Amino acid sequence: MEFLVLPFMQRAIIAAVIAGAVSPAIGAYIVQRRLSLLGDGLGHVAIAGVGLALATGIAPLPMAVAVSVLGAVIIELLRTSGKASADVAMAILFYGGLATGVLLAGMVGQGAGTLSNYLFGSLLTVSAEDLWLILGMSVVILVPALGLLPQLFAVCSDEDYARTLGLPVRRYNLLIVILAAVTITVSMRTVGLLLVSALMVVPVATANNLTIGFGPALGLAMGIGAASSVGGVVGSYYLNAPPGSLIVVFTIAVFTVTLPLSGRLRRRLPRVVDDPDPTQLPHEVDEHKEHTHGADCGHPAISHHDHTDYIHDGHRHAPHLDHYDEH
Amino acid sequence: MNAIETDDLSVTLGRLPILRSISVTVANGEAVALMGTNGSGKTTLVRALLGLIGFQRGSIRLFGTELAQFSQWSRIGYVPQRAEIQYPQARVSEVVTTGLLATRRLFRPRTRTQLAQISAALEQVGMADRAAHPYHRLSSGQQQRVLIARALVSQAELLIMDEPLAGVDLGSQTRLAEILAALKNQGSAMLIVLHETGPLESMLDRQIVLRDGRVLPPYAAPTTSHGHETQPRPRTPLLPGMLDRGR
């Protein structure tokens, strides 16, 4: 435990706890909207911000926030445009961001080594100033992510219905992607821009397997994310490896180990009692014994599933035992 | 004042005219069935009334206010034809809670009153014992009842329901008919999309029948009694095209 007295490790662990808790808090909404790979794309865009910061000498974190938020807004506008070309435009944005970041970093002599600190995380790069900025941004993320949980859940779970409630659906959707963009930059020091998406998605998937209900799952995912991140940072200290890779390995390990528990949980749920067979329920009967329906009875016949109904006096008769049911 | 009033409403999707010059009203406290064959425009009319799709001509007024200016959405409860709740593990209570969001204040937890409303709505549809159950594990009929509870929870003055009985077993249909009749007696207006009036027959004030995007003249239901009935018989308007489909 000697690492606890090292200032850079103290900062790295605090940053890991924050990133690990915040990432799944937004990831829960991203997963719910079936946009699990959005974080990956935004991570690529943020690399352009890092490259721009390295090229201009500005602090990387604020520049990455600005560029990734701009990218998030563009992505959401493209996505909601509904055009087929939006898919291609997003791919261009993602890979353009990655290429621009690598190019700008290379042009100022900051090679792959420097950039990899941001792509896969680095224990040494979390400065005290960064830590305060990360702390501030995490508050900015968590207040709406948790405070607006019912509204964001409604928008993500049933968008049409949310509109009928008068909720500003477009604004909430935009808020989610902007918060995702900020989350990615919060996490870039610990887990790295290329792996942050895993921290947004995998703890959420694990929690979904272990709990019922969106609120409980979100809380559990934050806990799993924070624990995995701390484990990854501490492990990387001993293994001298980038923390991002180990954090992701930890989250996947937790997912895999807890997978059998998911089956147990399902079995403990009360069994769904299917709605009873309608034919066994009280149903409307017309004995109508003075007439037998048939091919030549004069009543229009309608094929209805596995039997034939006959139109009689404005309603439909279906033969059943010694009487006719009203269909 | 009418809860719903449309005047010369026309909706075109792509280049296809779906609704043509629809002028209908639903008065406060009135229960109206919206009927017609598949593709006649029932769901499109409902979606237009709720502002989910735009319209090219005419007007829609909800409680006397033009749709574009209408903001009192808590006065309306909507039951969609089929709801895909995107989060499979959502609890039944979480789904029903969303029905309160039209009035719920931001950054505020649920109040005791709201929790009581949620319990009452679930009780009304016979799903109180499933509040903590995952929504996706319910049968389709039970899911439909949860969606009805979601519409009821805000104590809306107007319920708009798109085939609320579809996939619901006969016993539950009868129970829902009782619930809706009670709500109507309390003054709620209703527009209910139906293929067949079924157990709702007795609570309905009238029917609006659509065909090819137009309103048909009122249907005169047959009144001759039929000797062996054990309970009131649903009078379903037999429209051309209905003969070709199943129930």
Write the layout of secondary structure elements.
The complex is a heterodimer of chains A (327) and B (247).
Chain A: H1 7-32, H2 38-56, H3 60-81, H4 85-107, H5 112-120, H6 128-147, H7 149-157, H8 159-164, H9 169-187, H10 196-210, H11 214-239, H12 243-268, E1 285-286, E2 301-304, E3 307-312, E4 315-320, E5 323-326
Antiparallel strand pairs in A: 1-5, 2-3, 3-4, 4-5
Helix pairs in contact in A: 1-6, 1-9, 1-10, 1-11, 2-3, 2-4, 2-9, 2-10, 3-4, 3-9, 6-9, 7-9, 10-11, 10-12, 11-12
Chain B: E1 2-13, E2 16-22, E3 25-27, E4 31-36, H1 42-49, E5 57-62, E6 65-66, E7 76-79, H2 92-97, H3 112-124, H4 140-152, E8 158-162, H5 170-185, E9 189-193, E10 206-211, E11 214-215
Parallel strand pairs in B: 4-9, 4-10, 7-8, 8-9
Antiparallel strand pairs in B: 1-2, 1-3, 1-5, 5-6, 10-11
Core attributes:
heterodimer; A: 327 residues; alpha+beta; five-stranded antiparallel beta sheet; 12 helices; B: 247 residues; alpha/beta; six-stranded mixed beta sheet; 11 strands; 23% helix; disordered C terminus
Average pLDDT rating of chain B = 84
Largest sheet of chain B: 6 strands, mixed
> Strand fraction band of chain A?
5-15%
Q: Could you give the distance between the termini of chain A?
A: 76 Å
CA-based shape of chain A = elongated
Order of helices and strands of chain A, N to C?
HHHHHHHHHHHHEEEEE
As a whole number of angstroms, the C-alpha radius of gyration of chain B is: 18 Å
Largest interface by Cβ-Cβ < 8 Å: A-B, 55 and 60 residues
Question: Structural class given helices, strands, pairing of chain A?
Answer: alpha+beta
Q: Strand arrangement, largest sheet of chain A?
A: 1-5-4-3-2
Q: How many DSSP helices of chain A? A: 12
Give the H and E element order of chain B.
EEEEHEEEHHHEHEEE
The SS-based structural class of chain B is: alpha/beta
Query: Helical percent range of chain A?
Result: 55-70%
